[in-house]
Every structure is written in structure tokens, then in C-alpha cells.
Amino acid sequence: MSANNNSEAVMKKPGWLVYYAPANTTPRFMLMSSQYPNVLFTALLIGLPAMTATAAGLDDPQLPTVLSATRLKQAPAEVPGSMTVLDRALIRASGARSIPELLRQVPGMHIGYRRGNQTNVNYHGTNVTEARRLQVLVDGRSVYRSGLATVDWAELALSIEDIDRIEVFRGPNTAAYGANALMGVINIITRLPLDAQGTTLKYTHGDRGVRDWYASQGGGDFQHNWRVSLSGQQDDGFDHDDDGNNYRDRLRASRMNLRHLWQLAPNQSLDWQFSASETSRQNDYEYSTYLDHEDGNSPLDQSINAHQPYADIRGRDFATQGLWKLDLNPDHQIQIQAHAQHLQRLRDWRVCDSPLVFSDSLRQLNSLSQLAARRVSSYLDKSGRTETPDQYIGRYLSSAGETYTPQMQQLANQVLAEIDLYSNGQPACWDINENIRETRYQLEIQDSLRLSPQLRLLSGASYRYDRVDSETYFSGTLDNAVTQVFGNLEYRPHHRWLFQAGGMYENDQLIGDSFSPRLATHFFLAPQHSLRFVYAEAVRSADMYENNADWRYQVRNLSGPVTGPTTLYGHAQGPGDLDQERMRSREVGYNGNFHQLGLRVDVRVFHERITAMNSEPLKIDNFLPNNDSQIRFKGVETELDWQAGRADRIRLTHARIDYDATSKYDQRLTAHHSGSVAWLHKWPYDINTSLMYYGADQLNERRFERLDSRIEKNMDFSQDSSLTMALVWQYRLDDEAMTWDENLHDSPSHYYLSAELHF
Asked: pLDDT tens-digit profile of 258-285?
């Protein structure tokens, strides 16, 4: 059942103060201008309508349910946390071409770009280059990569047109979905085949190389119905880097989805899906030479700097899943879900470096201290030094808590003596790859039971098997198995009170055992207005790459003046004993539905602390994963959705976040103030418009403000056929790069036009 069936509207303007208060028994709603980005909402005060404490009040109009909080169907006011639902009307009105861009409408969600074809989605922030702490599901199937602890948004075998809604649980939800739901859960729910009957063809064309297409066909009857869709997406990414050079970050993606829903019996159904995608992401040459003399004039430097082949990434994903449901009676349901998925990322290119990288002395020094090996190189990169090499290297090791031993000194001096042997010669060149393949199988059983009118119980268990295969990252294959047992008990002793207790026991073969509890209390001021108090503990298990990497580049087709062993000095070894990251979260919130006004409000006040964090960069020459970091978040998030009449919908979100992080890497992608405003309007003659504003005061220390507008004209030819034309125009209101210095466009303006034919 859709979590937001009402048509809703959204307006986004910089800086509004929202105040809601009752005057006697008549509510008032006022908007007063303020200045963004300092404060988007300065206050949100809610006056609740009077209500008599009678059981008859529970018969008020019921809100649509959400599914992704506890796995139980619940009204928003019953959820043990904050839930954002992006419904189909809002998704369509946004004009977004990717799921991360849709998530800008979620309070506290921060969207960063490593490059035009690589997006990171973080809730509340943490490391700007990684997104390790959100569980992402597609119809209940996890697309979080266990091998490299990330979500590849560009490679998802899913098109925007197939999405029915996105449910985002904001806050720790390990109690329901296990480790990696540390900071939240994003559940992308696709459209039922019965809702997509007939043929749909769509094409989108715009500047920045936008060329998207979509085609779907749906059919069947109430017993068997199906939908198959094909889609493609491409764009040229950012235009140039901070030096004015052309930026190679083009994306090309092709996707296929097939879904079949079979009503086996009146109380039994089988939902089966298959999806596949193939992508190509442009990447420039990426290899860090040991001696980084970009302006060097030696023959060796010139040869190395002239070698810049491309290193594009090719991706292929396949997945199949099935969901069987059996309603034993109106109060008891059993479901079994199984899925299998396989992905591969292929990347190979030829690199050139000084023959020194095959030096046995350098290899031994790097095995003793990666920092010492790097400092030998950096000593030579700087001129005019007054320190000796031993003084320079020793000073840096001492500041990092390492001891510069006599053995290290001897090896460092041997490396320094070897450098001059190659400066006037030719480089060594060879082929390398960063290919990786990941496979997952999972089986899950879930039981939902109403024990009495006051008591509901959800329980279940799952088994997941993961395998990762990479000669570069793991020197072969690595396996893992995860077993989970979970449950949630919901008790309503009185129409004013609701108590919930849930938890997840999890056994990770490579990490060990963990238990994540959650306790929640709701007090109902009215049937659709509740105050909630939530305490939760959550964990995140280190992925295979962090904990068990055996990273070394295999050398093939070597050329150049290399004698002796042909093993590169660089090698990264995972510690194998990383602890789980742990969070404790406390939340006080309010969720209310002013039915007569068409107004929905959610407020979340939170305090979260994560300890034993791994926040270190994970590079082959700087691979030091640990549990030494921690971060504390506290703040307020507000979400308001107002159906202001039949023609208008206004939606506002704001997050005010304060944080205290011990690692500099966790301080980059947390905006103190961020939010969105949207206005959707239905005009006569089947014309629809939307105006949306997104803003954040800092994303990797950069301001972000953008205004999106969309105009749509629908032309009905018959009851079953129509043509829809839509124009989307985006305009950046700031002059900053997007997340990183090199992410720049030639113009702040971006547009694309789409035509959609349905028959």
C-alpha cells in the first residue's frame, strides 16, 4: 500500500521561518521571510487540536502505512523514529534523473560527488569519499556491497520511472535490518505490475550530454500480471576541472527489469523479479607514482608524465529475487524472501613509474612503515631542505607515534642511494587491474502475528552468504556468512500509549556476534498526533576490504630496465581484527497529521554518538584501518508537507546539525544547515509545474544552493493513451564547485526536455 497516496506539493525558497499556532481552536499557518543559509527554519511550533480522550477518536481517517521501519505495517505516528516518504507524485515533479538527487528532499541527507559519475549519499555526514553507514534496499533486497562497503548508485539496475516510492528511515535501524543500517535505511519500492499496464515510451534530451530513454510493457490479469522495462542513461558529467582541463567523467548505463506477480490463491502470492545493468564510467589515469615530480626535467620524469592512458570502469550487475506471502488468517502472515545477485567492476590500464618501485630495499621499508616509505619520496620532492633525510623522516614518524628504528634508517638510506641510478633512464611500464566480482545469496523468513487487539509480534531469521573475488584487493577469493535473528514487539495498553521493543542478533563469520536493541514509547495527543521517545543501539561491521584486504598489484607485460624480482613495493594488509562501530542514539520526536488542513509534520530532536569508527583513508600506500575515531551528532530535523487545496502542495524540510568529530575526514560532509522547499501546482488544461530549492551551508566546506523548476503538459488522446511533454531547468545559485575542486560546470544553468508516450 502506498505510503503517501495523497497528492502532495512542494515549494523551495531560500530561508523561511515557519510558525504554526492555534488561535482558540482554529489553527493558523504563517510564513515569514528570514535569511538562508544561516537559518532555514528558526522555529516550528505545533498546536494540536482539542480532542476528547475517548476510544471513538481512534476511528478518524487512517493514514497510509509505511513498511520500512520495523517491517510491520504502521501509520507514520506509530513509527519508532522519523520516516520520510518520497511518493510517486513528488518523484515525478522533481524531474530528477538519479536516485541520489531525489534524496536531497530528505532532511539531514547529504549528497556529494566524487566525480560526475560517482555519487556519495550520507545521512548526517562522515567521510566525504565513502558512504559506509546506510543500508539501501530495492524491494527489500540489499544493494549495499559487502566487499567494498559502498553503494554504487550509477550501476543500480533500476530506472526512476519504475519507482513507486522511497521510504527513508532516518536514524539507526540495525534492530530491524542488521549491521550497516547504522545511520538509516533507504528502501526503494518499485511499482506493482498492475499499476503499469500498457506501453510507455520516454526520451529525454538536454545539455551536458543528457540522453536518456525508457520503454516498458505491462500486461496480464488479476492472477498473473507482469512488467518488463528497458532503459538507458547517459550524460557527460562535469565540464572541466579547476585547471580548466576537460573532465572525463561521462556515464553510460543500460538497464533491464522484469517483474511478475502471481496470485497463487486468495491468501497466497509470489512476486518474482529479475534485473540487470551494464555501465561504463569514464576515469582519467589514476596511479600515484613513487616520485611525484610533475615539473621534473629528467628524461625519466618526462617519460612518466607523458604516460596518461585512460582507466575507465566497466560494470555489470545481475540480480533475481522472489517473495512468497501466505496469509494464514487476517492476523497472521508468513513470508519468505530469497535473492541472488552478482556484480563485477572491471578496470585495467597500463602504468609507468621509476624502476625504483621494484627495489627490495623499498619493499622492506614499506613493510615496516608505509609512512617512512612515503616520507623518503616527499623528502626528494621538496628543495631547499635544511634537515637531513633521517631528521626529516624521524620527525614525521615521531609525530605519528611511530619509532624510526635503525633498520628503517638503513633501508631509507639504501633507497635514497638507488634513486639516482634511474633518473636519466627509461621508466618501467606494466599492466595492472582493479577488477572485482561480488556474489551474494540470501534467504529470509518473516512471521507477523497479532496476538491480541493490543499486541503484535514480528519475528524472523535470515542467512546470507557473500563471496568476493579479486586478485588485486584480496589476492584471490574471500567468503563470509551472516546469520540474523530479529523481532519487534508492539504493545498498546491504552489508546494513548504505544510501547515497542525490537532487536537484532547477528553473527558475522569474519567479525563475530552482536546484538542491537531499540526501545520506543509513543504518547498519542490525538489519534494521528504522537510524541515519541526512542533509544537505540546499532553497529556497523567492517567490510571485507577494510578488515581482510590483501591488496597488491599483479605485474604483467613488464617493460623497462628492471632486473631481479618484479614485485611492486606497495602492499596493503587488512588487520583482520577490527571491532564493530557502535552507535547509541536518543531521540524525541513528534509526528502529526492535521487532516482537515491537509498538513503533515514530523520533528526529530536527536543525540547520536558513534564510537570505534574507522575513518582512515584506505589507499595502497596509506592503508591504516583502525577503530580510533568517534563522532557525536546532535540537532533538529523538521519535515512539513501541506496539501494546500486541490491545486497546491507545499513541502519544506530543514536539518540543523552540530557535530564533534575526532577525525578530520569526518568533518567535511556535514552541513550545519541544510534543507529544501518545494511547491507543486496543478494548472488548468492539464499543466503541472514544480519549483524546488535545495540548500546546504557546507558540503566538503563548500556552499550548495540550487533552484529546480519543471513544467509539464499532458495531452490525452483517449482513455488509455496520452502524451506528456516536460521541461526541467536547474540553476545553481552559488558559484562553488560541487563537493570537490575539480567538479565544475561551464554554466550554472542546466536543462533537459522529455517526451513520454503511453498507450
From this structure: 999 999 999 999 999 999 999 999 998 9
Quote the cell numbers at residue 71: 517491517
Residues in the chain: 759
User: What domain range is 724 assigned to?
Assistant: 16-282+313-346+435-542+578-758
Residue 15 in this model has a pLDDT that exceeds 70: no
Residue 222 has a pLDDT of 84
In the prediction, which pLDDT does 130 show?
67
What CA–CA distance (Å, rounded) separates 389 from 409?
A: 9
DSSP 412-460: HHHHHHHHTTTTTSPPEEEEEE--EEEEEEEEEEEEEEEEETTEEEEEE
Q: Is 10 domain-assigned?
A: no
How many CB atoms neighbour CB 272 within 10 A? 15
- Which helix (DSSP H) or strand (DSSP E) does residue 101 occupy? helix 99-102
pLDDT of residue 40: 35
Q: Are 446 and 339 found together in one domain?
A: yes
pLDDT over 70 for what percent of the chain? 90
Q: Is the peptide bond before 37 cis (omega within 30 degrees of 0)?
A: yes
**Number of structural domains found in the chain:** 2
Same domain, 305 and 318: no
Does 471 lie in the same domain as 402?
Answer: no
Residue 496 to residues 25, 55, 77, 440, 530, Cα–Cα distance (Å): 21, 9, 12, 44, 9
Q: Is residue 8 part of a domain?
A: no
For residue 10, the model assigns a pLDDT of: 33
C-alpha 623/C-alpha 334 separation (Å) is 45
C-alpha cell at 661: 568529530
For 288-304, write each residue's pLDDT tens digit.
Answer: 888 776 666 788 888 88
